[in-house]
């Protein structure tokens, strides 16, 4: 799937509002997609209401209850500082979902602007943009994310910057290609001839027509963003302890995996479920908006 | 044509190397503060900058940076004082053997799974192969590694779980679980790609012709279809190698293996600025070299490309 994502090229279908409303009804016709949407909804509720749902403070250490296995009191056990794994897992949804939404969104906005400018103006602007994004495309997004956060240092803001930047070339490429295919349409010539400014043409004519494929790309990258957040936090580059994230719960759990594997298993299972749900919905959105890419 | 490619690759290498420079020096975040911590005195910071050449004008730093790369002078570790070039050289074989082994495991499991899935489309075998492929994408590789380590290494005690091993046999034994972990992830990609490529090829006219001539179905699939279906699988090699390479960083951490990834992660954790920079450079150059190699391989295997570029 990563391999598939790396080489995504979506043609620009003509999209109207009615088309997209129709797409939604096709989307919810599939029970698996609906189930995944419910799972995603549950994750969002868990992240938003974490302080009310979590039975304990996720960062509070308790030296009387260190490295315990699952029990009635601590469902998923405790880590070596006596912190409640269940509460940490619930709070861990926060950085994952925040990043899963923000990184594709930021990359999408910036990538669309850059790609549209490159596609519209062509010439040296296009050559420079394409060249840089081609070089960046050669890097798997996880590797690019690791490299950028290694250079920037750990922390949540740096993490968002790193992952958004890792996704940027994918959006630039789609926005650029879609813009170029729209540029061939006669109505663009008409707009230019009627004296509209380039800014107005980009905003009023091109943007609405290329938004479909860009939405597809954005939904496909949410799952990847969540996985990369987990990987980076696991490597110690993402969310920093004591704040909880699924990746760093697994990292902390590794040292005592022999006696108490519950932390690794609980957090790992939750990441997997979350990535799975977003991935299925992303694929479903792609199948609906871009049926040709289906296998 | 070859000349053009060499020039092209040189430009790409300079660009990637420059990006590493930009990332390390120009992006927000003072390397001196990062290395010494927030509580370092101004004198300590100044001494660090002088030692690392960070007080020189940027253009001079850039030229020194390029010169050091060309002469393979990556400096010494701030923590251990060891030569970073020697350290990378000692660690490189472990990363290469893991990546290669994972590719092999992935192909051996993934291709037959994809063939089975495509030729028995809609069957239980197809269904399970697709579920496994989906799981391969959704289960994070480091979680899979942890599970494999718990089950095969600790519960069943079949294989060693720590370190890289000494001597050939020991090294191969230490390679099994990490390679299995990454290989399973790779198998998920490969089977998915093989399945869709094979389904695509099986729709072609020449397959219908072959079947109409009464060619044995096995022969049709293995001689006519699979050969062509494997082209996208083989040309995807570059992406796979790099995906395995980025996965190897987390896997090395789990199995406490030596490797380029662990050099980079150790550098980050101990705030060893020159080591991080060298680690980043190695990964960046890896990406560029794999891509150049893949470009050349395309031209070699696909005669059409040769004609176009002339």
UniProtKB/TrEMBL annotation, chain A:
It is found in: Cell membrane. It is a multi-pass membrane protein. The chain crosses the membrane at residues 32-54, 97-122, 142-168, 206-228, 263-281. Residues 93-282 form the ABC transmembrane type-1 domain. GO terms for cellular component: plasma membrane. One of its GO terms (biological process) is transmembrane transport. It comes from the Bacteria. CDD domains: TM_PBP2. Keywords: Cell membrane, Membrane, Transmembrane, Transmembrane helix, Transport. InterPro entries: BP-dependent_transpt_permease, MetI-like, MetI-like_sf, OppC_N. Belongs to the binding-protein-dependent transport system permease family. This is ABC transporter permease. It comes from Microvirga aerilata.
TrEMBL record, chain B:
Belongs to the binding-protein-dependent transport system permease family. The chain crosses the membrane at residues 6-27, 98-119, 131-154, 174-194, 229-255, 275-301. PANTHER family: DIPEPTIDE TRANSPORT SYSTEM PERMEASE PROTEIN DPPB-RELATED. CDD domains: TM_PBP2 (cd06261). Keywords: Cell membrane, Membrane, Transmembrane, Transmembrane helix, Transport. GO terms for molecular function: dipeptide transmembrane transporter activity. This is ABC transporter permease. The keyword Transmembrane helix applies. It comes from Microvirga aerilata. It is a multi-pass membrane protein. It is found in: Cell membrane. PROSITE patterns: ABC_TM1. Residues 92-294 form the ABC transmembrane type-1 domain. The keyword Metal-binding does not apply. InterPro entries: BPD_transp_1_N (IPR045621), MetI-like (IPR000515), MetI-like_sf (IPR035906). Gene3D superfamilies: MetI-like.
């Amino acid at each position: 799937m990563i391999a598939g994502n790396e080489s995504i090229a979506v043609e620009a279908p003509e999209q109207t509002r009615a088309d997209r409303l129709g797409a939604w009804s096709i989307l919810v016709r599939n029970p698996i997609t609906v189930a995944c949407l419910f799972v995603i909804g549950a994750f969002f509720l868990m992240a938003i209401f974490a302080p009310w749902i979590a039975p304990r403070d996720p960062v509070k250490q308790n030296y009387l209850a260190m490295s315990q296995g699952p029990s009635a009191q601590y469902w998923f056990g405790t880590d070596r500082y006596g912190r409640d794994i269940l509460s940490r897992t619930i709070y861990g949804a926060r950085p994952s979902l925040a990043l899963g939404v923000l990184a594709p969104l930021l990359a999408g906005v910036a990538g669309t602007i850059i790609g549209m400018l490159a596609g519209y103006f062509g010439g040296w602007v296009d050559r420079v943009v394409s060249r840089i994004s081609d070089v960046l495309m050669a890097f798997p997004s996880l590797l690019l994310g690791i490299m950028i956060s290694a250079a920037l240092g750990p922390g949540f803001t740096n993490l968002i910057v790193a992952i958004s930047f890792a996704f940027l070339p994918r959006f630039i490429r789609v926005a650029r290609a879609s813009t170029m295919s729209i540029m061939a349409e006669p109505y663009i010539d008409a707009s230019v001839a009627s004296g509209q400014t380039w800014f107005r043409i980009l905003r009023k004519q091109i943007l609405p027509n290329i938004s479909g494929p860009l939405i597809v790309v954005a939904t496909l990258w949410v799952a990847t963003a969540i996985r990369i957040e987990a990987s980076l936090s696991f490597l110690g580059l993402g969310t920093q302890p004591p704040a909880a994230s699924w990746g760093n719960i697994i990292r902390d759990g590794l040292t005592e995996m022999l006696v108490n594997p519950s932390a690794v298993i609980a957090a790992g299972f939750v990441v997997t479920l979350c990535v799975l749900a977003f991935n299925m919905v992303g694929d479903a959105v792609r199948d609906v908006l871009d049926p040709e890419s289906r296998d | 044509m070859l000349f053009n490619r060499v020039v092209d690759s040189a430009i790409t290498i300079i660009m990637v190397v420059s990006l590493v420079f930009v990332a390390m020096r120009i992006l927000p975040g003072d390397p001196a503060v990062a290395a010494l911590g927030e509580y370092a005195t101004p004198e300590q910071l100044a001494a660090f900058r002088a030692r690392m050449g960070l007080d020189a004008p940027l253009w001079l730093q850039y030229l020194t940076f390029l010169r050091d790369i060309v002469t393979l002078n990556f400096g010494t570790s701030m923590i251990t004082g060891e030569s970073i070039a020697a350290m990378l050289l000692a660690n490189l074989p472990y990363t290469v053997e893991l990546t290669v082994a994972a590719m092999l495991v992935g192909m051996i499991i993934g291709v037959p799974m994809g063939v089975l899935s495509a030729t028995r489309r809609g069957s239980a075998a197809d269904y399970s192969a697709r579920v496994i492929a989906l799981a391969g994408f959704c289960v994070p590789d480091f979680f899979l590694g942890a599970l494999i380590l718990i089950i095969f290494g600790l519960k069943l005690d079949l294989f060693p779980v720590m370190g890289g091993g000494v001597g050939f046999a020991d090294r191969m034994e230490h390679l099994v679980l990490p390679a299995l972990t990454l290989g399973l992830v790779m198998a998920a990609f490969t089977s998915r790609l093989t399945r869709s490529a094979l389904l695509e090829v099986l729709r072609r006219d020449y397959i219908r012709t072959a079947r109409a001539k009464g060619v044995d179905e096995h022969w049709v699939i293995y001689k006519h279809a699979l050969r062509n279906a494997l082209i996208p699988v083989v040309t995807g090699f570059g992406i796979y190698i790099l995906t395995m390479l980025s996965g190897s960083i987390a896997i090395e951490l789990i199995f406490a293996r030596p490797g380029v990834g662990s050099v980079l992660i150790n550098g980050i954790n101990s705030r060893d600025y020159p080591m991080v920079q060298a680690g980043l450079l190695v990964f960046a150059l890896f990406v560029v070299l794999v891509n150049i190699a893949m470009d050349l391989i395309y031209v070699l295997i696909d005669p059409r490309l040769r004609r176009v570029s002339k």
